[in-house]
Design goal:
The protein is α/β, with parallel strands linked by helices. The chain has two domains: 342 residues, Alpha-Beta Barrel (TIM Barrel), CATH 3.20.20.300; 103 residues, Rossmann fold (3-Layer(aba) Sandwich), CATH 3.40.50. The longest helix is centred in the last third of the chain and has 28 residues. The chain is globular and about 75 Å long. Its EC number is 3.2.1.52.
């Protein structure tokens, strides 16, 4: 793991000095240089791809897309220049306290009507909002909502985009259902192990999000899972091998950026090795820093080194850093991220409405604690209005410094301006429109083709007879499989009718014994105790995954995936 302690401390010293200067109104300190070569806002040559992750061309970080003076404006690892960041801090410092206090909050709201939250964005200066399943009724409604949120930000005079966010990881965490393309779980990406396939799938998904008006997706999950003892992350993880998780999470982030959508690498310092769900209560991570550096922190260190714009802080108490305090509220956790790893991007909290931080704290208290510790963006406080007021009161009382608040808001402003430039470039290379939504089926299928894994059974030829009996999975999954079987020419026998083979689908964590073929559609651990002669890990229940599964069962294509986690006696890497 490489670190950048010396370089980071130099930048932190410079940055804090500049933030204080901006706070004092010394706007003349901020200089955005302009070069003369290379118009990065121009459309790339035909056939070229958007800029790769961590390899940002000069000028990409500036709102105008023009070339900054590289000599006077060193570039941050994730894209913008130090001058861009200084401008963001100065702009935050110029805001009234009441506005800057709102500019670090991403709110959650109830139901499909976004009128009230849009008013709060305008009136209170909120950074933006995140959409969950209860906010969504259809594609047209989503597009109307995201436009309403964007307009609300423009109405208050800000010169940067609103945060319009979603959790669209794939698998069990997809807030946007059909007709948005459904993807398998992130464990499928780990099973595929192909960075190009993963990146292209991520770009396709993010293109749909951009077409729907989103600016941010809270993915990828960079947690290294410990297996069945991990009750929270499970199939959301790319696997149990730290280096492999780092590679795949990096490819996912790159694809998202290719499409102009900001990714958030989560959940620092790693949620895959704790056995308590932070949605309910606070997990405790008892590993030493050295142990974390050898496992959980590997993907996050890699994300920093390759230019991640945003890292999500998990609600996990690291005993070695600050016992009993969630990393999301812990100054030592942020210090490790900034000073040991050298991160210069935006640190966003996990949801502040989760049980891991709400217990024993008054409304707004977690927001103040997070900012004071080093957070830049506050995700879903229990009460956004109360959180904003608590921030205002904390600055007034001296509990939270205005300079720290301006630093946080300045990073968010800089990131959102950079996102606008990324989206503009992506539109030049891969235009999107209403018809883009639902168009990523081939990318989802390609990911599934690379992921489906045969643990036991022959690797070539048919694994079932011409007529199968389908057992397990529930009615919805069976219906979806039957549709895939019809598309693939496989006959599913009616209940009670004769069949050549029995295929047993398992969607949960409880193994159902029996059958000729056992298929795990979520975590593969259920296959350990299955007595079926053929065991398959599919990692999803979306149409693409089921189409691949049918093709593998019929012997029409090989199973290319390999286990990203150990399943009993089957080690990581098991497959054809």
């Amino acid at each position: 793991m490489t670190t950048a302690l010396g370089r980071t401390m130099t930048r932190r010293t410079w940055f804090l000095a500049l933030a204080l200067a901006a706070l004092a109104g010394l706007a003349a300190f901020v200089v955005v240089g302009r070069g003369e070569q290379g118009d990065v806002g121009a459309a790339p040559a035909p056939g070229s791809r958007p800029v790769p992750y961590g390899d940002v061309p000069e000028g990409l970080g500036t709102p105008s897309g023009e070339e900054p003076g590289s000599a006077s404006s060193p570039r941050l690892a994730w894209g913008p220049t130090e001058a861009d960041l200084a401008q963001g801090v100065a702009d935050a410092a110029a805001l009234p306290l009441e506005r800057v206090a709102g500019s670090v909050i991403v709110a959650r709201y109830a139901g499909p009507d976004a009128t009230a939250i849009a008013s709060q964005i305008t009136d209170l200066g909120l950074a933006g909002a995140i959409l969950f399943g209860d906010n969504v009724t259809g594609v047209d409604q989503v597009r109307t909502t995201t436009a309403q949120l964007a307009d609300a930000g423009a109405a208050d005079g800000r010169t940067w985009p609103v945060v319009v966010a979603v959790d669209q990881e794939g698998g069990l965490v997809q807030r946007l259902g059909l007709p948005f393309t459904q993807f398998p779980s992130f464990s499928a990406a780990g099973a595929a192990g192909d960075e190009t396939v993963v990146r292209e799938a991520a770009e396709a998904r993010a293109s749909e999000l951009r077409a729907a008006g989103f600016t941010m997706n809270f993915a990828p999950v960079a947690d290294v899972t410990i297996g069945p003892a991990d009750p929270t992350i499970g199939s959301r993880s790319a696997g149990s091998a730290p280096d492999a998780v780092a590679r795949i999470a990096g490819a996912e982030s790159a694809g998202s950026l290719d499409a102009g959508i900001l990714p958030a690498v989560k959940h620092f310092p790693g949620h895959g090795s704790v056995t308590v769900d932070s949605h309910a209560e606070l997990p405790v991570q008892g590993a030493s820093t050295a142990e974390l550096e050898a496992r959980d922190l590997v993907p996050f260190a890699d994300a920093v080194d390759t230019g991640a714009p945003m890292i999500m802080m998990g609600h996990i108490a690291v005993t070695a850093w600050q016992p009993g305090v969630p990393a999301s509220l812990s100054a030592p956790a942020y210090a490790y991220l900034r000073e040991s790893l050298g991160f210069t991007g935006v640190a966003v909290t996990d949801g502040l409405d989760m049980g891991g931080v709400t217990a024993g704290r008054a409304p707004g208290q977690a927001s103040v604690e997070a900012l004071a510790a080093g957070a830049d963006l506050l995700l879903t406080p229990v009460d956004s209005v109360a959180a904003r007021q608590a921030i205002i009161d904390a600055v007034g009382s001296g509990t939270l410094s205005r300079a720290r608040l301006d630093e946080a808001a300045g990073r968010v402003i800089t990131m959102m301006r950079w996102q606008e430039t990324l989206a503009s470039r992506a539109q030049d290379t891969t235009p999107v429109g209403p018809g883009t939504i639902g168009s990523a089926g081939s990318a989802a299928r390609a990911l599934s083709d690379a992921a489906v894994t045969v643990l036991t059974g022959q690797c070539t030829g048919s694994l079932v007879g011409d007529r199968i009996r389908l057992v397990g999975g529930g009615s919805a999954v069976q219906e979806a499989f039957a549709a895939a079987a019809e598309r693939g020419g496989l006959v599913v026998a009616a209940p009670g009718a004769a069949a050549d083979s029995e295929v047993r689908l398992v969607t949960g964590t409880t193994t159902a014994l029996g059958g000729d073929v056992a298929v795990a559609l979520d975590v593969p651990y259920v296959l350990e105790t299955s007595n079926a002669p053929v065991k398959i890990a599919a990692y999803g229940r979306d149409a693409g995954t089921l189409d691949t599964l049918v093709a593998v069962l019929r012997g029409h294509q090989p199973a290319l995936g390999h286990l990203p986690v150990a399943v009993g006696a089957y080690p990581v890497g098991t497959g054809c």
